[in-house]
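=== RUN LOG ===
request id: a7f3
mode: sequence -> structure
chains: 1
length: 450
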Amino acid sequence: MNARPSTSAPITMPSLTPTQWLIAAVAGLGFAFDLYETLMGALIVGPVLTTLGGLKPGTAEFNRWVGLFFFLPTVAGGAVALLGGYLTDLVGRRRVLMWSIVLYSCSAAAAGFAASLSVLLVLRCTTMIGVCVEAVAAIAWLAELFPIPRQRELVLGSAQGCYALGGLMVSVAYYMFVTHGDALPAVLGRHDAWRYTLLSGLIPALPLMLVRPFLPESPVWQERTTLGSPARPSIADLFAPSMRRTTLLTTLMMACLLAIPYGALQQTPRVVPGLAWLQGLGPRQIEQAVSRLFLVQELGSVTGRVIFALLVVRVVRRQRLLRLFLVPAAILLPWLFFAATSSGMIWFSIGVFGAQALFNAMHSFWGNYLPRVFPMRLRGTGESFAMNVGGRMIGVCAALMTTHLANAAPGVLPATRLANAAGLTMALVLTTFLIASFWLPEPKSDLLPV
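=== RESULT ===
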């Protein structure tokens, strides 16, 4: 095992080797397409339901299907990713990482040929299974490949910054497909932008097939296996007295974190078409406006990830670092959606930019925090439990909460009711998140626990 540096003296970080650069690039690509595959669901769900399902926006049936498309794929991903986290600890980080990316790429591409809502929903489930497993494996793999604490924090923060690139890419791709899709070959006899967007999900699998032979396994995990069969990870161990508080709090707080996009931010493509400044435009012009606003939103993602990468090695206490982003988010997000339909395009765009920046900074926080509070034997299992049971299975319920509240929320237009429902969901979620942050355990050391 590599010698671990002492924390009592300043450490000069060595330059990254070519292999380490390749590792960081592959992880960054994986994170980027995690979000690419995830966010395309929010962009395409409206056009899918109108063109493939023949449903009318704002009706109860339309809202029910929206809730299903947000809820079921994410819950399926979270449930199966528990097994993925277990396998990450059992058979290795790299192997699980690579096959999960292949799974979500091929599933997304196959979804582009779906002929019914039910088939598309199943393929979105398999896509999200790959995304959820990849996120856990990648974080554990990266954290263990960089033993120097400051270097590890910077690499994890920077690689997760590529999440934001995925958001930018899918925004630009969707805009291009909406604008120029008629020039592309027809898919099942049509030129639907949502089909081209799904088909583009195959892209990340191609470079990975070329670089996979050059990627090393985690040396920490590899050494443990060469010394003998590693103890099998167990979910029950996460609730041992020494781990119970960490497990419960990280699970609750990941649920609150993932409730932000599912309960509000990913609802903006359905809020925007009903806003006053877009009334009178044709369907294509409205879709272009949605994609432009989504691009602004994803520029906020980039900003939030960069700010976090700059602060992660400067703010020592993890509670303080988290609340630097959580406190303004608890104020901004409810206001943004309560005032969405009356604030005007400029203020709404600025608010969306800021909200997305704050969410992405907090999302990066957990990628750096979780490896430091779960021991090596339980790292994949613990991260998976917090991220998938908390975020993917509980947090996603915010999508159902918002879509159900939209049927009873005040407002004349469906977009107004949806915006008010999202604002109420955010007020409840972020208040819980802020209160829980005061009990968040501080990591015992800069070094990863063994």
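=== NOTES ===
The chain has 17 helices and no strands.
The CA atoms of residues 15 and 99 lie 30 Å apart.
=== END ===
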